[in-house]
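Project standup — Tuesday

K.O.: blocked on the structure for the chain from last sprint. Re-posting the sequence here as requested.
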Amino acid sequence: VFQKWVNREISNFDYLIQLNTMAGRTYNDLAQYPVFPWILRDYTSEELDLNNPAVFRDLSKPIGVVNEKNAKTVKEKYISFVRYENFEDPLGMIDKFHYGTHYSNAAGVMHYLIRVEPFTTLHIQLQSGRFDCADRQFHSIPATWQALMDTPNDVKELIPEFFYFPEFLENQNGFNLGQLQMSKEVVNDVVLPKWARSPEDFIYKHRKALESEYVSAHLHEWIDLIFGYKQRGPAAVEALNVFY
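H.V.: unblocked you, prediction finished:
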């Protein structure tokens, strides 16, 4: 599979799906759902220029420190993590970590897929029979990216649906997802980047970005973090990539 990918005989999307499968990730288990990377960092321009390297996320860094200003906080947390995370660990049994949450978990999958069943029902069950408050829901792609840049506490990567399934961005079932506290904006369809004219247009351009020359040249750096030698040990510590 690796050689086929290197020879450009399979797409980046197909390679990532196969890597996820080989790592034991599956659509049948929300706790081990396939994980895909955030690949862009430009969610505000009117047009998306895939020939400009500046529109892409740095794939060599974990999402928590793509914004350089978060790196200091993350390093400090690792050095004195018990104080930062309020962990009760009198025996010193918990290994040090940079992030108290994970880049992929069941709640994160339900967060992204809240508008489509069976994930809507699963989300409601998780929230004791109701939708979570609107401000915590997935309501905007630009806002979600901005939140990742503003704080290293949320480190969710993406799911494969961001590259092929426009329906998850639409509230086709008409669920009452509430309204945002500050703006009073009603949460309905997911707010798209300015460069996307529709959910289908977003998926088309996002998939094009995944298969772009820039991502093809740098995707291995992200794979090292998630599936490779930077998952644990000294290489993970150096890369600020240690998870609780």
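K.O.: great, moving the ticket to review. Residues 70 and 185 are 29 Å apart (CA to CA). The mean pLDDT is 93.
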